[in-house]
TrEMBL record:
Pfam families: ACT (PF01842), PGDH_inter (PF19304)
CDD domains to which the protein is assigned, alphabetical: ACT_3PGDH-xct
Protein's pathway: Amino-acid biosynthesis; L-serine biosynthesis; L-serine from 3-phospho-D-glycerate: step 1/3
Catalytic activity: (2R)-3-phosphoglycerate + NAD(+) = 3-phosphooxypyruvate + NADH + H(+)
Coiled-coil residue spans: none
Name of the protein described by the UniProt record: phosphoglycerate dehydrogenase
Species annotation: Ceratopteris richardii (Triangle waterfern)
């Protein structure tokens, strides 16, 4: 429904189109007919919009308690800074950070206002990197400082919860957690585990999930070195039962684990 005051506006057709665009956008639909923007621009941004929101959702679930005040976001791109407008991405990061822990409805129009209301400051930085300027972004990095983490492995050497993501073949991927490189497709929920790198760990966790009839869509392992500490990311199509999570948590070789819902 378009607000009465928008209908009354002398530019109501323009405003109604943008209002409808915003409302459909926050539901995951980008329609080029509602905005004065080239179709190819919206098309190339779509997977990055999804990546931004999902990184925000993952990051806030890693925080052990409330009180997030400052979030650092770094955008790495081969494009000149003037050609990289991050307002849309920032709005979706805020959406991902706030909606899972509140009843707020965050969209492109109100994201900055809601963040300010809640005392959340998003500090953005842009980094020029090698690569093709045809690609809007190489990576997005989110860092949350001065908080405890439900998953200590997500803390970087600086003590910040750190997540890095990129888009591969138009699909959002998690590519770094803390100091561990990983390659996890963000198309479903994720279980992260930390353990000593040794044979059989993938099979042990996979068997537990199979016993509980939980479908796995990927498994990825990042490690410091052979037989050293490793991070395993398991993508799930189905929400795991408490029984399954309890069984995973009881695996002696696991140092810690966390379930993150997208």
């Amino acid at each position: 429904m378009v607000p009465k005051e928008v209908n009354a506006c002398p530019f109501s057709v323009f405003h109604q189109r943008n209002w409808q665009f915003v409302n459909e956008f926050v539901k995951g639909v980008l329609r080029t007919s509602y905005v004065d923007c080239a179709a190819q621009v919206l098309d190339e941004l779509t997977p990055y919009v999804s990546l931004a929101e999902k990184l925000g959702r993952l990051a806030i679930q890693l925080v052990a308690a409330s009180g997030v005040k400052n979030v650092k976001v770094s955008y790495s791109s081969a494009r000149d800074g003037d050609d990289l407008d991050t307002r849309l991405l920032r709005a979706m990061i805020i959406k991902g950070l706030i909606e899972p822990i509140s009843d707020a409805y965050v969209n492109l129009v109100n994201a900055d206002f809601i963040a300010k209301q809640r005392g959340l400051k998003v500090i953005e930085a842009r980094e020029l990197c090698d690569g093709s300027p045809e690609v809007p972004l190489q990576t997005i990095v989110i860092k949350i400082a001065n908080v405890q983490s439900r998953f200590a492995t997500a803390l970087s050497d600086s003590g910040e919860i750190t997540l890095e993501g990129r888009v591969k073949e138009r699909i959002p991927h998690l590519c770094k957690v803390g100091e561990f490189d990983v390659d996890a497709s963000l198309e479903g929920s994720v279980i992260l585990t930390r353990q000593q790198d040794q044979p059989g760990m993938i099979g042990i966790v996979g068997n537990i999930l199979g016993d509980e009839n939980i479908n796995v869509n990927f498994m990825s392992v990042g490690r410091i070195a052979p037989r050293k500490e490793a991070l395993m990311a398991i993508g799930l199509d189905d929400e795991p039962t408490q029984a399954a999570l309890k069984r995973i948590g009881s695996i002696p070789e696991l140092q810690e684990y966390v379930y993150l819902k997208l």
